[in-house]
Every structure is written in structure tokens, then in C-alpha cells.
Design goal:
The complex is a heterodimer of chains A (256) and B (414). With 256 residues, chain A is of the alpha+beta class. Chain A is built from three helices and 13 strands; from the N terminus they run H-E-E-E-E-E-E-H-E-E-E-E-E-E-E-H. Chain A has helices spanning 3-36, 131-134, 249-254, and strands at residues 41-51, 57-67, 74-81, 89-93, 101-106, 111-114, 142-152, 155-164, 174-180, 186-193, 196-209, 212-222, 227-238. Classes of the chains: A alpha+beta (256), B mainly beta (414).
Chain lengths: 256, 414
């Protein structure tokens, strides 16, 4: 073997080892993060405060019901406030291999409507959440890379970078994720479009509820609009019995 | 005594229900309309209306829910009744001052849901025109600003595995409410020298029924439906009495059968929503009663969201296979052979703006609605709409060319 071939082989080996050292732990960290939040169902009541660029605050409230696990779940959001959107509901059917299907029920129209979501960057009801942000983030839809370690609010975290796989149509070209080392809780996501920060999500007030570390406060910031949405969750309950028949278009119409 | 028993059962059940199973919402809205132009039968430039709506829902057991809504309203133009009368049927020429908008019992067990009572039933997937929406009569007193009317019906829906079957039976016909003959949304014949009066409204007897199957697939959903009953939009017959300078108008609701289909298909760049219905006259053609056409009414629209914008554009068409009717009032067919569009923009959590339009392909009629809406605090919303109508008097849209107007709505929601 010539010295050039040997050098090439060493370089290749080094590259593979470096990939293994970075890629595999990153995926494992993301997997553990997802596994530790896994539950058969979830229910909470959320209070949203949308704070616009002029610092005007608009409050919305909803109830959230999810059934199923990451990537294959069904969710129903029902607005309970303000009064004018009370009863508006959104059904999200997540798929492991493609964008979710979504239907919206509007009581004033007395009908469901399939939401056309070619562009899932659309903001949900004027909040800083986009429709895509409401979908679940399933690790199988992304490639991961470990960028290093960094503390968030004093807590040591792994910093990961994720890119959507080809099969996943995402508004974000990449994301940076901070996952706490002590309990594998996701505490921050910076979502990028190309190299520009598009949306930042921070998770705080983390409590252990039914053995699942649960952030009770989320803050979504949109730097381009200089607006942010703060969501506080209450009455969180995991693994409550739920029925498949309550996560259908017909269930949207039935209400409650 | 039966009522007393019902009340006792309900009261007992209510005491067992928790507060979480109770839901209510409503609003009080005042609408002020300004019309720059007068019309032949309406010399006023302004109209006002006040509406109160309250909807309640109570889940007594996980499988049993009662829900209903009431409405009270008044207006400046006597489109609303002036007598105290709690209306349930919604069959009058005028809007009832006090009305039970809906009241239904919903039983849900497994994959089956059944609704019994006065309710709203909506079919179809398109946004601007729904040919298959046969159980949804509307209040067309102000033609371009209409609202749905509830129907007395029994409805059963079986849903499972992405498929659903919807069966509907209505024992009693509910018509759409036509514009009043003495107001601006009725355009008298140009040669009429005197006045127009309602001579009769012929409500058909007998029930109506329909079925719809829906399938949700990968990136698409589609339905097939069938309706046997009466068109909630009337055929018009008239009698002229020259000596009395009088034109008498009668409304007939023809028996029809509709075979329909609708679909929504997601493509990478847009969503296609399409809907069509073939309407067949079921009147015995040997009678002297007015006959309805056989026709195919369809709409195809493309929809795309880009950030906070939503764009909807489409075409509504009609093919008449057998023409029989002489005169009718049919805003659905009135929108046919037209390009339809809507652009919506969500400015922020409190403000939104929209433009809707219909442009007849022949160029004889145009309708454009510009809207801006803003939320104040948690309860108040103000909406301003500018409606522009232009065109030729022979066209369904164009005939209202003197009815362009501005509406200011102030709503308090609770």
C-alpha cells in the first residue's frame, strides 16, 4: 500500500470515526429526549399571550388533546377564549412520513374545512406558532448532528443541529436544539430558514408530571416581526383514556 | 305532561353533569349599512340591524349532548317581524324577532353519531359555492350578505377508518328566505308601472332525505352524495293585473333529485377543491305547476397559503341539460359561469383583511367585497366591508348594480 493510499485510508477512517462520534450520539440524545416524553395520550389547557411589535397583548386559550405517539398521533385543539373564537377547533393528524393533515371547524360556519397547507409557515390564528410548529417533531423525520455542549439558564445542555429529511417538507432548513443533560428535556429550539433565525422556541418552568418532564411555559419568538407568543400550560395529564373516535372530522363537529 | 317529564329528566341529568361539560357562546352585533344609490323600491340610504345570538351546549353523559341556540333581532327596514312570537320553523317571509335557531340532541356511541332536532347541516368542500349543500337554506333578504337557516332533521353519521356515511332525513321543508318585494334586493321588471305583492308561497309537503359517503385518503378526500327532496330556492310564477297596476308573485319549491360529488386534493403547490351536482327535476311533467331545469352545477377552486396570505381562485360553471323554468330566484346558479376569488391576509392576532370577488365570464356582472376587521380587547370586534356591485340589469349579479354599499359591524362576543 502506498503512503498516499495509507494516508487516504487514515483520513477516511478518521472521517468515519468523527461522523460516528458526532452523528450517533446526536441521534441517541434526540431519541432519548423523545422517548422520555412518550405517552399514549396528553391533555392540557393552554393560555396564549401574543405580544406584538407594539407590545399589545392578545390572549387566547385552548384545550389540547393528543392521542398516539410521536409521528403517528392525532391532536385536537379547541379554542375556549377569546369569546369570538370559542368553539373553533383544529384536528391535526400527524404522519411519520409526510406533512400532517389538518381540518378546522368553525362554529359560525357550521362546517369543517380542510386546511390547505402547502406553506406550513402560516401563523396559527395570528399567534407566533406556525401550523408546522403545532405538529409533533418526530426524530425519524430529521438528520441530527452534535454541535457541542452549551448551558441554557445555567443548565448544561447538548447542542444539536437537525436538518429535515427529503421526505419531510419543512419551512425550516435547519434547527438548533438544546437538550438538558440531566433529564433529556428539550429547552430551546432555534429554527432557521437558510442562515436566518426564523423562530425561536424556549421551554421553561419544567415540572415532573407523571414521570414526564414537562415544560409548563413555552415562548415562541419571531424576530422578523418582533413579536412573541407565551404559552402556559395547566392541568397537564398524561395517559388519560382517549378514544380514536374522538379524533375524527366528525368529532370536530360534535364539539366539547 | 310529556313536556313536564322531559324537563324533569333533563333537570336530573343536568345536576349530574360537571361544569366542564357546559359550553356557551354568543354575541350582540349592530350592523349599519350605507347605500350611496337609491333604487326604484327603496329610497333610503341607510339601514340598521341589531342581532343577539346565544348558543349553549351541555354534555349530560359522555354519549349524550343537548345543544341549541336562540336569536333575537330587530332592524330599521322591517325585514324583521315586529310581533312577539318565538319562532322555530323559520318559514316566514320576514326574519323572526325571536327564534330558536337550533335545538338538537346528539347521541354518540363508538363510531356512530346521531343528531335529532333543529340543526345546521353542511355538505361540500368548496368555499364560495356549494352545489351539494342541499340541507342548508339561507336567509337571502340581503342577497349578498346571507346566513344559514337551521333545518328540522334526523341525522346519523357512521365514521371509521377514514370513511364516513352521513344519512339525513328532514320531515319538514325549510325554504331559503327570499328578498322582500318592496325592498332594494328585489329588482322589479322595468315595464312594471305599479307594485309587486306576494300572492302565495307553496310549501311542499313530505320529507326530504339524502346520503353522503366521504373517504379521506393520502393527500386527498372525496365524497359522493345524493339528495331527494325540494330545492330550497324557489321557482317564481307571476300574474299581472293591469287595472290594479299589480304584479302578483308566487313561489314554488320544485321537487328535485341531486347526485353530487366533491373532492379536496393536496398538490405540492396548491390544494384543489372541487364540487359538482347534477340536479334533476322530479315534478310530474304533466301538471301545470312550474317546472325546474335539469342541470349540472359545478365549481373548481385552487387554494394556496403563503405566509399570512390565503389565495383562493376558481370557476363556477353550469350546464343545462333540459331547460323548463321561466323565472326563479337562485343565487347559487346566479354565481355560475363566473370566476370566483378570495384573498385573505392575517395582519396580526387582532387584525385581518380580505377581498372576495365574483366576475361573470360574460362581463355582465361583478361583485367585490373588501373587508377589514379588528379586535379591541377581548370582546369587541369592528368590521368594515365595502361591497361593490356592477354590471348589466339582465345579469343576476349585475341587476344589483345600484346596491353597492358599506357595512359597519360592531360585535360584542361573550
Amino acid at each position: 500500500m502506498s503512503s498516499r493510499a495509507l494516508a487516504s485510508a487514515i483520513l477516511l477512517l478518521g472521517h468515519l470515526l468523527a461522523r460516528a462520534a458526532q452523528g450517533q450520539p446526536a441521534l441517541e440524545i434526540a431519541q432519548k429526549e423523545q422517548e422520555r416524553t412518550r405517552s399514549q395520550s396528553e391533555r392540557y389547557e393552554g393560555t396564549l399571550q401574543v405580544i406584538d411589535a407594539k407590545r399589545k397583548v392578545t390572549e387566547k386559550r385552548w384545550t389540547f388533546d393528543r392521542m398516539g405517539s410521536h409521528g403517528n398521533s392525532k391532536t385536537i385543539l379547541r379554542f375556549t377564549a377569546p369569546a369570538e373564537v370559542k368553539g373553533v377547533a383544529l384536528l391535526i393528524v400527524n404522519h411519520p412520513d409526510r406533512a400532517s393533515d389538518q381540518w378546522m371547524w368553525t362554529p359560525a360556519l357550521e362546517r369543517d374545512r380542510r386546511v390547505a397547507l402547502q406553506d406550513r409557515s402560516t401563523r396559527f390564528f395570528g399567534t407566533d406558532f406556525s401550523f408546522e410548529d403545532l405538529e409533533e417533531r418526530d426524530i425519524s423525520q430529521f438528520d441530527y448532528k452534535l454541535l457541542g455542549e452549551e448551558a441554557v439558564n445555567g443548565a448544561p445542555c447538548w447542542k444539536l443541529e437537525s436538518h429535515p429529511k427529503q421526505t419531510k417538507s419543512s419551512q425550516y432548513s435547519s434547527s438548533h436544539l438544546w437538550i438538558r443533560k440531566d433529564n433529556y428535556v428539550l429547552v430551546r429550539i432555534d429554527n432557521y430558514r437558510k442562515d436566518k433565525l426564523a423562530r425561536q422556541i424556549e421551554y421553561s418552568e419544567i415540572e415532573n408530571i407523571q414521570n414526564i418532564w414537562t415544560p409548563k411555559k413555552l415562548q415562541v419568538s419571531d424576530p422578523a416581526r418582533d413579536s412573541r407568543t407565551v404559552m402556559k400550560v395547566d392541568n397537564v395529564r398524561y395517559n388519560a383514556p382517549m378514544k380514536d373516535a374522538d379524533f375524527t372530522v366528525e368529532a370536530l363537529r360534535r364539539g366539547l | 305532561m310529556k313536556w313536564l317529564a322531559c324537563v324533569a329528566i333533563c333537570a336530573g341529568a343536568f345536576t349530574n353533569a360537571s361544569a366542564q361539560d357546559f359550553e356557551q357562546r354568543g354575541f350582540l352585533e349592530t350592523r349599519l349599512g350605507g347605500f350611496p344609490e337609491t333604487t326604484r323600491n327603496d329610497q333610503s340610504h341607510a339601514a340598521g340591524q341589531a342581532v343577539f345570538q346565544w348558543d349553549l351546549s351541555y354534555k349530560i353523559f359522555p354519549w349524550l349532548t343537548f345543544s341549541g341556540g336562540i336569536e333575537a333581532q330587530t332592524d330599521s327596514h322591517q325585514e324583521t317581524e315586529r310581533k312577539f312570537h318565538l319562532d322555530v320553523q323559520d318559514r316566514g317571509l320576514l326574519r323572526p324577532a325571536f327564534e330558536i335557531r337550533s335545538f338538537k340532541m346528539t347521541v354518540h356511541k363508538g363510531h356512530l353519531s346521531a343528531d335529532l332536532g333543529k340543526q345546521f347541516i353542511r355538505w361540500g368542500k368548496a368555499d364560495i359555492l356549494n352545489p351539494t349543500d342541499r340541507f342548508a337554506p339561507r336567509d337571502y333578504l340581503d342577497v349578498v350578505d346571507n346566513e344559514f337557516l337551521g333545518v328540522l332533521a334526523a341525522r346519523a353519521t357512521l365514521e371509521g377508518g377514514g370513511n364516513s356515511l352521513d344519512l339525513v332525513w328532514t320531515p319538514r321543508f325549510t325554504p331559503s328566505r327570499m328578498p322582500l318585494l318592496n325592498e332594494r334586493w328585489t329588482i322589479p321588471p322595468p315595464d312594471l308601472m305599479g307594485r309587486m305583492e306576494n300572492a302565495a308561497t307553496h310549501f311542499p309537503g313530505g320529507g326530504q332525505y339524502g346520503a353522503r359517503v366521504n373517504h379521506v385518503g393520502r393527500r386527498y378526500e372525496m365524497s359522493a352524495s345524493m339528495f331527494e327532496g325540494y330545492n330550497h330556492l324557489p321557482l317564481i310564477s307571476s300574474s299581472v293585473y293591469p287595472l290594479a297596476s299589480l304584479l302578483e308573485v308566487e313561489a314554488h319549491y320544485p321537487k328535485i333529485r341531486m347526485y353530487g360529488t366533491d373532492a379536496a386534493i393536496s398538490f405540492p403547490w396548491f390544494t384543489l377543491k372541487t364540487e359538482g351536482g347534477f340536479f334533476q327535476s322530479r315534478e310530474p311533467h304533466t301538471t301545470a305547476a312550474p317546472q325546474s331545469d335539469d342541470y349540472f352545477l359545478y365549481v373548481a377552486q385552487l387554494e394556496r397559503q403563503v405566509g399570512e396570505w390565503i389565495f383562493v381562485g376558481g370557476y363556477a360553471g353550469q350546464t343545462i341539460t333540459q331547460r323548463r323554468s321561466l323565472m326563479d330566484f337562485d343565487p347559487e346558479r346566479g354565481l355560475a359561469r363566473a370566476f370566483l376569488g378570495r384573498i385573505g391576509y392575517t395582519i396580526d392576532a387582532r387584525r385581518s383583511a380580505s377581498v372576495e370577488m365574483a366576475q361573470r365570464q360574460s362581463g355582465t356582472g361583478t361583485w367585490i367585497r373588501l373587508g377589514y376587521s379588528q379586535l379591541f380587547g377581548a370582546h369587541w370586534r369592528t368590521t368594515v366591508e365595502v361591497v361593490l356591485i356592477g354590471g348589466d340589469s339582465t345579469d343576476f349579479l349585475g341587476q344589483y348594480h345600484r346596491n353597492s354599499h358599506v357595512i359597519l359591524r360592531i360585535r360584542y362576543s361573550f
